[in-house]
Design a protein that fits this description.
The structure holds two protein chains of two kinds.
Chain A: H1 14-19, E1 34-40, E2 46-53, E3 61-63, E4 88-89, E5 95-101, H2 104-109, E6 112-118, E7 131-139, H3 142-147, E8 151-159, E9 171-177, E10 180-185, H4 190-201, E11 208-212, H5 225-240, E12 244-247, H6 250-256, E13 263-271, E14 277-289, H7 295-304, E15 315-323, H8 337-355, H9 359-366, H10 386-397, H11 399-406, E16 411-422, H12 428-432, E17 435-440, E18 445-448, H13 458-470, E19 477-479, H14 498-517, H15 522-529, E20 533-537, E21 546-547, E22 552-553, E23 558-570, E24 577-587, H16 594-614, E25 619-620, E26 623-624, E27 643-648, H17 665-668, H18 670-679, H19 692-697
Parallel strand pairs in A: 1-12, 10-11, 14-15, 18-19, 24-27
Antiparallel strand pairs in A: 1-5, 2-4, 2-6, 3-5, 7-15, 8-13, 9-10, 9-12, 13-14, 16-23, 17-18, 17-20, 21-22, 23-24, 25-26
Helix pairs in contact in A: 4-5, 7-8, 8-18, 13-14, 16-18
Chain B: E1 9-11, H1 16-25, E2 30-32, H2 38-44, E3 51-54, E4 64-67, E5 70-74, H3 79-84, H4 86-91, H5 93-100, H6 105-110, H7 113-118, H8 127-132, E6 136-141, E7 144-149, H9 150-153, E8 154-156, E9 159-160, E10 167-173, E11 179-185, E12 196-202, E13 207-211, E14 218-219, H10 221-228, H11 233-243, H12 254-271
Parallel strand pairs in B: 1-3, 2-3
Antiparallel strand pairs in B: 4-5, 5-10, 6-7, 6-10, 8-9, 11-12, 12-13, 13-14
Helix pairs in contact in B: 10-11, 11-12
The chains are: A alpha+beta, B alpha+beta.
The complex binds flavin-adenine dinucleotide.
């Protein structure tokens, strides 16, 4: 343990948040401020033929696409998403018009009617003819791999949307000043907003200033959409010449902002009799929604995690993210990995079931080890910890013993082994050219980065890193507000990169600052030499090469490794699945603040339990039909079982004090562990959320048997008798795996 | 979009007499009790009501007492008060169970039994209890008091016999003979709306009621008849399917509700077996 690093110092943002004095955008006001409101499309696809404003317009500022001084796009990856629809709408809740008024009540009462000529909406991703991106990863010789297999196991796995449900809905304040605009709001990435606004408003970079307000959670949901809201607020501010506040309520936030991409992933895997994987053929399909947003990058990360943490010489992964007329999907903690790891880990479980092998053993045989290569040919370092976390979680949870003890009861136990690459994919970090600065203060130093605090502990951990490297107390390090007028561009606060990458730059700054100080105290240095600011820019570690065209090379600087064991209890009357215990073993390089790491693991696990069991976005005609807390069901504290968290450390040579990223990984493995626990009860489930309706409708796994309350409804006889293969491949809710789906042995599977 | 509040009117009577007069002369008015349903509608902007009357100060609508052998529960009685009442716990344990299954503590502190009835949601958790207990609803207007058997209170989906000038003042529950049983099947451990909810009384002639499986709370009369006539539980489960008419909605499916309703019936029957 260091003096500061490795200790659970108090979170610097904690007291103000606990006391209620932290100021969020909804708390901010400016003299003469207008409130703004977004008028949105009500249909998924069509032309706007007429807009009727049925109210007295006195005192209103009204903005449409014609008021945009620059380019009508939210500049990000593809620049395809308009800031305000210009005659055509492509999803429900697409912004069409902005209204603003000083009096919120007048604003709320204003009635706008939009008339349309509806087009034909594409809502099923499988039917979409347009891909935002395709990915193809190839390693070895697939046919040769399958020739070596004794069995081929196939399957299709599905995941649904997920809503971030940060506790603070989105909001922005725009102030026209200095011939440009200043934005203050809830966001993860001030420089993304900055870039989007210069394009939208046609302003020089120094005319746009973006500062983060206290942000109440984000989870990826405030990565891209805040640029849209800031754009809207800025347009009204520039047209009216007055400060403008635009804050969403929960229903609007749910209806309009991005969600996790739904997925369909197919696996075809060759395995030997003793459980060795010889070939993996994987197809990934993501529903991108109406605009590109970050979909290509989500797909990329999804595909790079699609094999799970397993070694295999012959691999093919192909991925597509397609356009549909549903609201655009975007960044969400895990960023494609939770979807593909769900498929991978349920599939590995099915391999174990097919072969009649122990699930821990099948994973141990195939787990990546130091020196192994990934699907992209990346050679893994000494910090590879798949086996360590697997063994730690299995031992700590008593997996083998409980697996036996629970047989024939309503309790089940399952596990998932997973990994998560920290930082931007491939050359992403290189292209970002992130900078971090450290300014000397009389007491210590002030951190200048564009990384944002959203509840995860960025300010605390960055201050810890600097304090340790500079040799000053934690309290002597301040962290500046992420304001583009003050801090350099350290890249976005996403991708589990804030500690590992930006924290690494800060450590380098602090080391250099310490060298410059020599024996002088900060105060003495400032007196003698004047101000000192040290800046560092990212350079990739040696031998980290990536070829974007062939998808070969080092996809990520480092990987975290984790294993979740989850125990569940099935209610025989209602088919509700209640998690009763989670054992989570996570290897994080080095836990700079163990309590914060624990917080990420516990929070990510809770969010994962929601994803696995409860959370379902019900889309009707392309609109979220359950856009309220009442019906979009997330876990409460009463739904979360005891969480036993084990933190393992295998330091990463290029992370600050050995740290890897930890923010996203905890959500990656929960859903497959839950579903595998349900599978241990004999329920052939391959889809989440595992609602009681879905559990009840799922077929049985042949041979495992399934206990029920002993009585069956008409037409459901045969339940609980372990009828082999009964109901296999039954289509339900559009899930029709067809003939190829059942675990088809190449030679005949042993009959069980 | 949230409802604009400046357009709303609120009347705040100090006595029941004043309140009833306002209901007659200044109506139509929407009564406010704990507001836990009303505010949801205002917040989502789905409520069409613009004129409200606050019942909070009407002491006549509070209190739990025994009157003429029946338990009389004031319409403003909150779930927390029901849970705390020894009388309710002793004589109507299924009502206490229902109260404890509603929302979570905050909602139990504010939500009222009168509001649960008057809100007319088929998923209201106390409603099957009141149906199975053969409760009566006391309605008052300026010029009369009437008592409506709970089974006759609802006339269809979100429709009831309450006239616009009437206030629900109390619920009367006659003595209940036999073992009482209640179970709610919601979406998760707290703050959840029922997918299926059932109350049952195991007596000579069993009384069984379900919520969330039809446009209104339903008494499963045919099932009761069958069980009273000595049908097996398997037969009763078949009969039950005729008593209920669930649908697919945002929270669940008709198939799930049918199956779970049947399983609840089984569970009730075996756990209350003499
Ligand atoms: C988070 C949350 C969780 C909830 N969970 C549950 C749950 O688990 N189970 C459940 O059943 N409900 C639940 N509800 C709904 C609600 O709390 C209950 O229906 C509650 O009983 C309503 O009572 P109230 O006093 O708050 O009614 P109010 O909101 O004040 O009124 C509801 C309706 O009844 C009318 N009304 C009220 N009192 C009278 C009266 N005396 N005479 C005539 N009309 C009257 C009102 O005009 C209005 O139409 C929940 C609500 C929320 C917000």
């Amino acid at each position: 343990m260091g003096l500061v690093v490795g200790r659970s110092v108090l979170r610097s943002d904690g007291a103000a948040k606990a006391a209620g004095t932290a100021r969020y955008v909804a708390d901010l006001a400016r003299p003469g401020m207008l409130h703004a409101r977004t008028i949105r499309s009500a249909i998924p696809c069509g032309e706007v033929t007429r807009i009727r404003l049925d109210f007295d317009r006195a005192g209103f500022t009204i903005v449409d696409a014609r008021d945009i001084p620059g380019r009508n796009v939210i500049s990000l990856v593809a620049d395809d998403q308009p800031c305000l629809a210009d005659g055509v709408v492509r999803h429900v809740a697409e912004p069409v018009l902005l209204l603003a008024h000083e009096d919120r009540e007048r604003l709320i009462e204003a009635e706008v009617r939009i008339e349309y000529r509806p087009g034909t909406a594409v809502l099923d991703p499988a039917a979409s003819g347009r891909a935002f991106k395709t990915v193809s990863i190839a390693k070895g010789d697939l046919a040769a791999g399958f020739r070596r297999a004794d069995f081929v196991v196939e399957g299709e796995y599905r995941t649904g949307h997920q809503e971030h449900l940060y506790i603070e809905p989105n909001g922005m304040l725009a102030v026209p000043e200095n011939g440009g605009v200043t934005i203050i709001g809830s966001m993860q990435c001030p420089y993304y907003v900055h870039r989007a606004l210069t394009a939208l408003l046609g302003l020089a970079p120094d005319k746009v200033r973006v500062a983060q307000a206290e942000t109440g959670g984000a989870f990826g949901g405030k990565e891209d959409y805040p640029s849209m809201i800031a754009g809207h607020a800025a347009l009204v501010a520039l047209k009216s010449g007055r400060p403008v506040k635009l804050v969403y309520d929960r229903a609007e936030d749910l209806l309009a902002t991005t969600k996790r991409h739904p997925s369909v992933v197919r696996h075809r895997t060759g395995v030997t009799r003793d459980g060795r994987i010889t070939a993996m053929d994987i197809e990934v399909l993501l529903d991108g929604g109406a605009y590109c947003t970050l979909s290509p990058v989500v797909l990329s990360r999804g595909c790079l995690h699609a094999t799970g943490p397993y070694r295999c010489d012959h691999v093919r992964v192909t991925g597509r993210v397609v356009m549909t007329n549903s609201p655009p999907n975007g960044a969400f903690r895990g960023f494609g990995a939770p979807q593909t790891l769900f498929a991978a880990e349920v599939h590995v479980e099915r391999i174990a079931e097919t072969l009649g092998l122990d699930p821990v053993r099948v994973r141990a045989v195939n787990a990546l080890r130091p020196g192994d290569t990934t699907a992209t040919g990346q050679v893994l370092g000494e910090d590879t910890a798949a086996l360590d976390v697997l063994r730690a979680a299995a031992r700590r949870s008593g997996f083998a013993r409980k697996r036996r003890a629970y047989r024939g009861t309503h309790r089940g136990i399952g596990l998932a082994l997973f990994f998560h690459g920290a930082g931007f994919t491939g050359n992403g970090e290189l292209h970002l050219q992130s900078k971090a600065s450290l300014e000397l203060t009389p007491r210590g130093a002030r951190v200048l980065v564009s990384s944002t605090e959203m509840g995860q502990g960025q300010r605390t951990v960055h201050a810890q890193i600097v304090a340790e490297a500079l040799g000053v107390p934690y309290e002597a390090v301040e962290v500046a507000v992420a304001d583009t007028a003050v801090v350099p561009d350290s890249g976005p606060t996403v991708a589990s990169r804030t500690t590992m990458i930006v924290g690494g730059l800060l450590r380098d700054c602090a080391v250099e600052m310490r060298r410059r100080l020599g024996r002088l105290s900060p105060a003495a240095y400032l007196r003698r030499h004047g101000p000192l600011v040290v800046t560092r820019q990212y350079a990739p570690p040696p031998n980290q090469e990536w070829d974007e065209d062939s998808y070969r090379g080092s996809a990520y600087g480092s990987y975290g490794w984790a294993c979740d064991v989850i125990e569940v209890e099935r209610d025989p009357v209602t088919e509700e699945i209640r998690p009763i215990r989670v054992t989570a073993a996570h290897e994080v390089g080095r836990a700079l603040n163990p309590l914060a790491v624990r917080g990420q693991i516990e929070g990510g696990t809770a969010q994962g339990l929601g994803y696995a069991l409860l959370e379902e976005v019900v889309l009707r005609g392309g609109a979220m039909a359950n856009a309220q807390f009442t019906n979009y069901v997330v876990p409460t504290t009463l739904d979360i079982p005891p969480l036993d968290v084990l933190i393992l450390e295998k330091p990463y040579a290029h992370g600050p004090f050995g740290a890897k990223g930890v923010g996203e990984m905890p959500i990656d493995g929960v859903a497959p562990a839950v579903v595998n626990a349900i599978r241990s009860l004999g329920v052939d489930l391959r889809e989440i959320p595992a609602t009681p309706e879905r559990v009840m409708g799922a077929p049985e796994i042949g041979g495992l048997g399934r206990a029920t309350d002993g009585s069956s409804a008409p037409g459901r006889s045969g339940r609980g008798q372990g009828t082999r293969g009964q109901g296999r491949g039954t289509g339900r809710r559009g899930w029709n795996p067809g003939a190829s789906d059942a675990g088809a042995p190449k030679t005949r599977a042993r009959s069980r | 979009m949230r409802t604009a509040l400046s357009a709303l009117t609120l009347l705040r009577p100090l006595s029941l007499r004043d309140a009833l007069r306002m209901m007659r002369d200044d109506g139509p008015l929407t009564p406010l009790a704990g507001c836990t349903d009303v505010y949801v509608g205002l917040n989502l902007g789905t409520a069409s009501d613009r004129r409200f009357i606050d019942l909070a100060r009407l002491e006549a609508l509070r209190g739990i007492a025994v009157r003429g052998g029946a338990i009389r529960i004031g319409a403003l009685t909150t779930y927390s008060e029901l849970l705390r009442s020894p009388l309710v716990r002793r004589r109507l344990p299924m009502l206490a169970s229902a109260a404890g299954a509603i929302g979570a503590v905050q909602i139990q502190n504010r939500g009222t039994i009168g509001g649960n009835i008057a809100n007319m949601s088929p998923a209201g958790d106390t409603l099957p209890v009141l149906a199975a207990a053969d409760a009566r609803v006391e309605l008052r207007s300026v010029d009369r008091v009437r008592t409506v058997p709970f089974a006759l209170y609802y006339t269809g989906y979100r429709r009831s016999v309450r006239r616009t000038d009437e206030i629900i003042t109390a619920i009367e529950v006659p003595p209940v003979e036999g073992a009482q049983w209640f179970r709610k099947v919601g979406t998760h451990a707290a703050q959840s709306i029922s997918k299926v909810v059932m109350a049952g009384v195991r007596a000579e002639r069993p009384r069984i009621a379900f919520g969330s499986v039809a446009p209104t709370v339903v008494r499963a009369r045919r099932t009761e008849d069958a069980l009273a006539a000595g049908a097996t539980i398997a037969e009763a489960r078949e009969v039950l399917q005729l008593d209920i008419s669930p649908i697919d909605d945002i929270r669940s499916t008709a198939a799930y509700r049918r199956e779970v309703a049947a399983r609840l019936l089984t569970q009730f029957w075996s756990s209350t077996a003499p």
